[in-house]
Amino acid sequence: MDHARLAELQGPDSIFSGLSVEDWAEIASRSVQISFVKGKELLVQGDPGDMMLILTEGTARVSMLTAGGREIVLAYAEPGAVLGEIALLDGGERTASVTATSAGSALQLGRNALKDFAASHPEFTWSLMQQLARRLRTADQTIESDRAYASGPRLARYLKRLIRKDSAEKSHRVELSQTELGNFAGMSREHINRQLKSWEESGVISLEQGRVRVLDAEMLEDISECEG
Ligand SMILES: Nc1ncnc2c1ncn2[C@@H]1O[C@@H]2COP(=O)(O)O[C@H]2[C@H]1O
């Protein structure tokens, strides 16, 4: 793996941030590299799972199907994401499906390989536990949003979670279409559209092709805090 890609995988929230080039070489030597096309189901909800994936290139969607067949999006994964650690660690079924939203590649690491690597790299084990804690924290926040907040503040909270900073400009962006946002926030596209249009009129956001640009992050924060 080249240095630019390594740097990308080792961003601030990455569980790989403390690893050296040699550590990476060790992970690579213990894993199988896979390539995938857009739309490929990388992990399937309900399947048994004894391996996890480290996304090295491309993006993916983590989602669950309800009993009625509706897709609920839980998260979007970017390079550096670890996927499939839950079934690998607890021996249960995959909790969600992971579908590629672009072509890409991943390292596939089996249970024994992970155990061996974790045993000799305690700082990595610590980072993996931190990632699980972060996911639990986000899941708790989602439960709170869904139970205690009306749809407007709830959408504001989801938007805040999805925001990416645009360093060139002062604004922030969310790279999702209104349909994707609806799947993420559990709201219909029409409902999302009405809400976003009203925020656009008051200058909180602007709507662009396939993305939302947040113009007034403070106002979005205020909206997200309105319980009720
Ligand atoms: N709420 C979530 N946020 C981010 N990733 C998740 C979430 N729920 C499940 N996943 C990932 O999706 C994977 C599906 O397979 P696993 O259950 O083995 O491991 C799961 C996690 O890696």
Structural commentary:
This protein is an alpha+beta fold. It is 44% helix and 24% strand. The chain has 9 helices and 12 strands. A 4-stranded antiparallel sheet has the order 1-8-3-6. Helix 6 (151-162) packs across helix 9 (217-224) and helix 7 crosses helix 8 (189-201). It is globular. The mean pLDDT is 87. The structure holds adenosine-3',5'-cyclic-monophosphate.
Secondary-structure blueprint of this entry?
Layout: H1 3-9, H2 21-30, E1 32-36, E2 41-43, E3 51-57, E4 60-65, E5 71-77, E6 82-83, H3 85-90, E7 97-100, E8 104-110, H4 111-120, H5 122-148, H6 151-162, E9 164-165, E10 172-174, H7 178-185, H8 189-201, E11 205-208, E12 211-214, H9 217-224
Antiparallel strand pairs: 1-8, 2-7, 3-6, 3-8, 4-5, 4-7, 9-10, 10-12, 11-12
The protein binds adenosine-3',5'-cyclic-monophosphate.
Residues 43, 49, 62, 74-75, 83-88, 94-96, 98, 135, 139 line the site of adenosine-3',5'-cyclic-monophosphate.
Characterize this entry briefly.
With 228 residues, the chain is an alpha+beta fold. The protein has helices at 3-9, 21-30, 85-90, 111-120, 122-148, 151-162, 178-185, 189-201, 217-224; strands spanning 32-36, 41-43, 51-57, 60-65, 71-77, 82-83, 97-100, 104-110, 164-165, 172-174, 205-208, 211-214.
- Report the C-alpha radius of gyration, rounded: 19 Å
Helix content: 40-55%
Give unreliable regions as ranges.
Answer: none
Largest sheet report: 4 strands, antiparallel
Q: Give the percentage of residues in beta strands.
A: 15-25%
Mean of residue pLDDT? 87
Q: What is bound: which ligands?
A: adenosine-3',5'-cyclic-monophosphate
Helical run tally: 9
Q: What sequence of helices (H) and strands (E) makes up the elements?
A: HHEEEEEEHEEHHHEEHHEEH
Spatially, the strands of the biggest sheet line up as: 1-8-3-6
Shape field: globular
Structural class: alpha+beta
